[in-house]
Design brief:
Distance between the termini: 35 Å
Active site: 149
Helix content: 25-40%
Strand order of the largest sheet: 3-2-1-4-5-7-6
Number of strands: 14
GO molecular function, one term: NADP+ binding
CATH topology of the largest domain: Dihydrodipicolinate Reductase, domain 2
Order of helices and strands: EHEHEEHEHHEHEHEHEHEEHEEEH
Organism: Gallionella capsiferriformans (strain ES-2)
CATH architecture of the largest domain: 2-Layer Sandwich
Number of helices: 11
Largest sheet: 7 strands, parallel
Pathway: Amino-acid biosynthesis; L-arginine biosynthesis; N(2)-acetyl-L-ornithine from L-glutamate: step 3/4
Number of domains: 2
Strand content: 15-25%
Domain Semialdehyde dehydrogenase NAD-binding: 3-141
Radius of gyration: 20 Å
Length: 342
C-alpha cells in the first residue's frame, strides 16, 4: 500500500481523482487539501463519496505532504511549482495535473501562462505523462507532468501518422470540442447554464495555452517541427472531448492497419472498426480514448476522430494510470471502468 495526498481536492479534477482512488486496492488516501474548505468533511461537499471517504479537507500548511509516497496536484497553474522541490527532496513522487512542468521551453511557458517559473531546473527532469509514448520513462520518474485534455486527444490521434511519416507535418489541423467541465469548478459567466446551454462556439482561435504543448509532443514523434492549426470549441456538454483531426497524406497506406498496429498493446486506446464514428458518450466516466480513422472518397486527406472524457483520460484517470506505472501496479488498476450510458 502507498500513502497518497491530493492538493486541491475541491475541483472537478480533484473529486474525479477521489472517485478513482477510493477503489484503488493499493492506495490509502492520507490527506486532501483545500484552503477555503479546511475542516469540512469531504463527503459533505461530495455526497457521492459517502461511505468511501472519511476525511476532512486540510489546509495546505497543515497537510504534512512529506509523509506521503505520492502527491497529486489538482490545482490551478502555478501552484505545484511552489511546492514540488521540497516534496521531491523528501522522497515524495509528484504528479502535477496542471501545466507547470509540461513545456520544456521555459520562455514559452512564461509567455503563455503569464508568470515566472519558480523551479525551471526541475522542468528538464519532469516526464511528460502520456503512457502511450513515455511508459518507460514514467516507471522511474520522480515528477510527472500530466498532459492536458485537448493535448491527449489530439496527440493520440496524430501519433501513428507522424511516426510512420505518412502525412505532411507542416499542415495539420485539429478541430476540437470540449464540455464545460474543462473550464474547472469555478464561478464564471461563460460556464453558467444559461450561457453554455443550447449554444456552441469556438474560442482561443488566435492562440490557446494547449497549442505549444500539442506541438511539442507532435514534434517529438515526428522528429521535426510541425505546423498545427488548433481551434477549440465549447459545447453544451458536461464531460467529453471530440477532436476531429486533418492531415495530407504523402503516400498510400492502409490507415486502419496502421492505427490498429500502433495501439494493439495499449490498454486505454480503442481503435474502432473502419467507418466508425466514435461518440463522447461512449467514453463518459472512463479512461479510454476511442479513435476512428477515415479517408474521405479515397482522397489524399486523412480524417481522425478521437474522443475522450476530459476529466478521466484527459486528467484524473491518466494521472492514476501514471501512478500505477510509477509504482509497478497493474496499469489498469482502478481504471477498468465501463463508460456510463445514457
Amino acid at each position: 500500500m502507498i500513502k497518497v495526498g491530493i492538493v486541491g481536492g475541491t475541483g472537478y479534477t480533484g473529486v474525479e481523482l477521489l472517485r478513482l482512488l477510493v477503489l484503488h486496492p493499493e492506495v490509502t488516501l492520507q490527506v486532501i487539501t483545500s484552503r477555503a474548505d479546511a475542516g469540512t468533511r469531504v463527503d459533505q461537499m461530495f455526497p457521492s463519496l459517502r461511505g468511501l471517504v472519511d476525511l476532512l479537507f486540510v489546509h495546505p500548511d497543515e497537510a504534512h505532504l512529506e509523509q506521503c509516497d505520492a502527491v497529486f496536484f489538482a490545482t490551478p497553474n502555478g501552484i505545484a511549482m511552489q511546492q514540488t522541490r521540497a516534496l521531491l527532496e523528501a522522497g515524495v513522487r509528484v504528479i502535477d495535473l496542471a501545466a507547470d512542468f509540461r513545456l520544456q521551453d521555459i520562455a514559452s511557458w512564461e509567455a503563455w501562462y503569464g508568470m515566472t517559473h519558480a523551479c525551471p531546473d526541475l522542468v528538464a527532469e519532469a516526464v511528460y505523462g502520456l503512457p502511450e509514448v513515455n511508459r518507460e520513462q514514467i516507471k522511474t520518474a520522480r515528477l510527472i507532468a500530466n498532459p492536458g485534455c485537448y493535448p491527449t486527444a489530439v496527440q493520440l490521434g496524430f501519433f501513428p501518422l507522424l511516426e510512420a511519416g505518412v502525412i505532411e507535418a507542416g499542415s495539420l489541423i485539429a478541430d476540437a470540442k470540449s464540455g464545460v467541465s474543462g473550464a474547472g469548478r469555478k464561478a464564471e459567466i461563460p460556464a453558467l447554464f444559461a450561457e453554455a446551454g443550447d449554444n456552441f462556439k469556438a474560442y482561443g482561435v488566435a492562440g490557446h495555452r494547449h497549442l505549444p504543448e500539442i506541438k511539442q509532443g507532435l514534434a517529438r514523434v515526428s522528429g521535426n517541427g510541425v505546423g498545427l492549426t488548433f481551434v477549440p470549441h465549447l459545447t453544451p456538454l458536461i464531460r467529453g472531448i471530440h477532436a476531429t483531426l486533418y492531415g495530407k497524406l504523402t503516400r498510400d497506406v492502409d490507415l486502419q492497419a496502421l492505427f490498429e498496429a500502433r495501439y494493439a498493446d495499449e490498454p486505454f486506446v480503442d481503435v474502432m472498426p473502419a467507418g466508425s464514428h466514435p461518440e463522447t458518450r461512449s467514453v463518459r466516466g472512463s479512461n479510454r480514448c476511442r479513435i476512428a480513422v477515415h479517408r474521405p472518397q479515397g482522397g489524399d486527406t486523412v480524417v481522425v476522430l478521437s474522443v475522450i472524457d476530459n476529466l478521466v483520460k484527459g486528467a484524473a484517470g491518466q494521472a492514476v494510470q501514471n501512478l500505477n506505472i510509477m509504482f509497478d501496479f497493474p496499469e489498469a488498476m482502478a481504471l477498468n471502468i465501463v463508460p456510463l450510458l445514457p
